Amino acid sequence: TPLIGVLALQGDVREHLIALAAADAVARPVRRPEELAEVDALVIPGGESTTMSKLATVFGVLEPLRERVRAGMPVYGTCAGLIMLADKILDPRSGQETIGGIDMIVRRNAFGRQNESFEAAVDVTGIDGPVEGVFIRAPWVESVGAEVEVLAEHGGHIVAVRQGRALATSFHPELTGDHRVHALFTEMVRAAG
Ligand code: GLN
User: Fold this and answer.
1) Distance CA 91, CA 191 (A)
2) Could you list the residue range(s) of the whole structural domain that residue 146 is in?
């Protein structure tokens, strides 16, 4: 059974721990480099990406995160977590850093004021039947490099991607009680051995 960490600096950590347990993984929170070293894979939760980036620097875990992702650790980011996995942010706040790992440019808070939070059925490659997408001040993916597989779009915008062992969604499957996306990630972790 894979041991999957949830980056627990900020955001909806608890919901991911519950979703991963339901998807037959063993899950635990990760804050420090020593804790990161113990897990096989990592989920980066939703929350606020600027705050998460600053806390990652304060906790001394930003560089270790970059190294593990570069070395091929399976990783899944939702919403702010998707932003953390982007190689480039279109509109970063000052001092905002990312871990990177997915060759994409993201736009923060992309769906705009009229539509800050909404739900929509989303078809995701690799999952049978639509997923209930919960979007909260969600980013979208503006563009992707050749190595990136687009798994889902909503309203003509990219909202789920995969590159190698890195998976990211603009929406929050951890808030719905539907654990199929977490199960997909757990399968990626098992396949990585
Ligand atoms: N808008 C947030 C950010 O820029 C993300 C929101 C979320 O994770 N629900 O980090």
Assistant:
1) 35
2) 3-192
What is the tens place of the pLDDT at every residue in 45-94?
999 999 999 999 999 999 999 999 999 999 999 999 999 999 999 989 98
172 noted as active-site residue: yes
CATH number of the domain at 54, please.
3.40.50.880
The distance in angstroms from the start CA to the end CA of the chain is 10
Which residue in the list 154, 172, 179, 182 is annotated as catalytic? Answer: 172
Give the distance (Å) from ligand 1 centre to CA of residue 81: 8
Ranges of the chain whose pLDDT falls below 50: none
SS (H, E, C) 124-167: CCCCCCCEEEEEECCCEEEEECCCCEEEEEECCEEEEEEECCEE
Q: Are 130 and 171 in contact (CB under 8 A)?
A: no
Do 131 and 192 meet the contact criterion of CB atoms below 8 Å apart? no
CA angle, corner 19, sides to 17 and 23, nearest 5? 115
Residue with tokens 């990136």: 148
Look up 179 and say whether it is catalytic: no
Cβ neighbourhood burial of 85 (10 Å; 0-12, 13-18, 19+) = buried
Task: Judge if the beta carbon of residue 98 lies within 6 A of ligand 1.
Answer: no
Number of domains the chain contains: 1
pTM for the complete prediction?
0.97
